[in-house]
Amino acid sequence: MICHPNAKINLGLNVTERRPDGYHNLETVFYPIPLCDTLQLEAAGNTDSRPEGIFPDGIPMQEHATEDYTFRWGGIGIDCPPEQNLLVKALRLIQERHSLPHLSISLHKQIPSGAGLGGGSSDAAHTMKSLNQMFHLGLSDNELEERVTGLGADCPFFVRNRPVFATGIGNIFTPIALSLSGWHLVLVKPDIFVSTKEAYARIIPRKPGIPVTDIIRRPVEEWKGLLTNDFEEGVFALHPEIADIKTRLYDRGAAYASMSGSGSSVFGLFRTAPEETDMRRLFRESFYFQALL
Ligand SMILES: C[C@@](CO)(OP(=O)(O)O)[C@H](O)COP(=O)(O)OP(=O)(O)OC[C@H]1O[C@@H](n2ccc(N)nc2=O)[C@H](O)[C@@H]1O
Ligand SMILES: Nc1ncnc2c1ncn2[C@@H]1O[C@H](COP(=O)(O)OP(=O)(O)O)[C@@H](O)[C@H]1O
């Protein structure tokens, strides 16, 4: 089975309080975007399984084989050992209650990590969803959300994967009728890794003046200056290059620009598609992605 774990952006992000368990309550809108990894899961012995299948020609592949799975990955580097990969942890969680055959897992990584895009979380949620489907485990979306939350606060969003207003630690959802269809998304990820834990530690929690849900109902052109990401202040102070990306996106005509999550990626929403070669030249040190939403 092949699936495409996608990334998310945060539209507004207010960290409202620190909890006794060390986590923080927040208010944000999660919005799925078309930047995707490719993930293939096959039971051993499946004659359709071609491990090299999802990797474009010439992409070097790494492999980690154990008694119960073989994991191959390539593309953008992942800075943790394979057993710590969130998709392997998702597999382990499922194996605690269900017996599965030997699995062949292949991941073509295209979402940069440490970017505030939730790539690892998406891989974990999509692994659980795929296993549920392949082996008819009968887990409901609520059960999948509950189980995958243990792997990261961002994970449960990717189970239903639709625009939501999120509260709690980012795991309590209210669907919203927001569509950015017709907007051009530009995403820039500088070569800077931001630790989510450290980014949270730099924030003094507070209630937002205007709730995210009120701002999001207004036209995108009115979001600038109203819809805020509380991580920006601390992260921009540490890395002015990230603030500079936001300024440049506005200079090039973005109607709205913001860092996503705890960074370091910054996105811009444009009414008309910006000239790609110009943008690539402007952000040449960075990972660059452009899509029509
Ligand atoms: C900031 C956000 C916004 O969407 O996304 P990213 O920037 O990571 O994509 C999320 O809250 C990140 O979720 P996720 O990356 O899954 O976090 P986890 O792995 O669960 O937690 C990493 C660390 O962040 C802190 N943490 C995380 C979530 C939360 N609501 N409060 C916290 O204080 C904790 O210190 C935790 O040890
Ligand atoms: N499948 C995966 N893809 C990317 N990173 C992963 C994965 N599994 C575990 N990780 C670890 O999670 C960290 C955060 O990655 P990711 O969730 O993609 O970024 P972010 O938290 O910024 O959204 C990485 O630095 C890496 O150590």
UniProtKB/TrEMBL annotation:
GO molecular function terms noted in the UniProt entry: 4-(cytidine 5'-diphospho)-2-C-methyl-D-erythritol kinase activity; ATP binding
Domain of life of the organism encoding this protein: Bacteria
Catalytic activity entry: 4-CDP-2-C-methyl-D-erythritol + ATP = 4-CDP-2-C-methyl-D-erythritol 2-phosphate + ADP + H(+)
Residues forming the catalytic site: 8, 154
Stored SUPFAM superfamilies: GHMP Kinase, C-terminal domain, Ribosomal protein S5 domain 2-like
Binding site for ATP: 112-122
Single GO BP term: isopentenyl diphosphate biosynthetic process, methylerythritol 4-phosphate pathway
Location of the GHMP kinase N-terminal domain: 85-159
Domain GHMP kinase C-terminal: start-end pairs: 217-276
EC number(s) stated in the UniProt entry for this protein: 2.7.1.148
A UniProt-annotated Pfam family: GHMP_kinases_N
UniProtKB keywords: ATP-binding, Isoprene biosynthesis, Kinase, Nucleotide-binding, Transferase
Pathway: Isoprenoid biosynthesis; isopentenyl diphosphate biosynthesis via DXP pathway; isopentenyl diphosphate from 1-deoxy-D-xylulose 5-phosphate: step 3/6
InterPro entries in UniProt: GHMP_kinase_C_dom, GHMP_kinase_C_sf, GHMP_kinase_N_dom, IspE, Ribosomal_Su5_D2-typ_SF, Ribsml_uS5_D2-typ_fold_subgr
Function according to Swiss-Prot or TrEMBL: Catalyzes the phosphorylation of the position 2 hydroxy group of 4-diphosphocytidyl-2C-methyl-D-erythritol.
PANTHER family: 4-DIPHOSPHOCYTIDYL-2-C-METHYL-D-ERYTHRITOL KINASE, CHLOROPLASTIC
Family classification: Belongs to the GHMP kinase family. IspE subfamily.
Protein name: 4-diphosphocytidyl-2-C-methyl-D-erythritol kinase
